[in-house]
Design goal:
The protein has 124 residues and is mainly beta. The chain has one domain (21-122): Lipocalin (Beta Barrel). The chain has one helix spanning 2-14; strands spanning 27-34, 41-50, 55-62, 65-73, 77-84, 87-96, 102-109, 116-122. The longest helix has 13 residues, at 2-14. This is Fibronectin-binding protein. It comes from Microvirga tunisiensis.
Length: 124
């Protein structure tokens, strides 16, 4: 049975069938984002470390500031909390088929009403 499934998968690939991109999970990523204020584009990095089957440690470095986070989920969708310098917030990272192994993210600081957005791509 296993070899039959493998054979069908290989046949599908040979015929040009596409396989959905999987988010990368643990690793180092490049971040490009924008918060809710005008002219607020930023860049940085995000490191994701898997700490158990369903939990992850996230560390963003943005313009010299460090944001420490904790997430639950899997490699495709992560629900995260984060904090830095006494401020905290929430983020949702969802796999992004366009970046081949990355995420699209929305986030907000506690008490804010506007969302920030990030495009998270595997660092090369």
């Amino acid at each position: 049975m296993k070899s039959k499934l493998l054979g069908l998968a290989m046949l599908g690939l040979a015929m040009g069938a596409s396989v959905p991109a999987m988010a990368g999970g643990p690793g180092v990523y490049t971040v490009k984002g924008h918060n809710s204020e005008p002219d607020s584009d930023y860049t940085g990095t995000l490191t994701i470390v898997q700490t158990s089957k369903d939990t992850f440690k996230l560390t963003w470095n943005i313009a010299g500031d460090r944001y420490d986070g904790f997430a639950i989920g899997d490699e495709r969708v992560l629900a995260a909390s984060f904090s830095s310098k006494g401020a905290s917030g929430t983020a949702l990272l969802v796999e992004d088929d366009e970046t081949k192994g990355g995420y699209k993210s929305i986030w907000a600081f506690k008490g804010e009403t506007q969302l920030g957005v990030e495009l998270i791509t595997p660092k090369k």
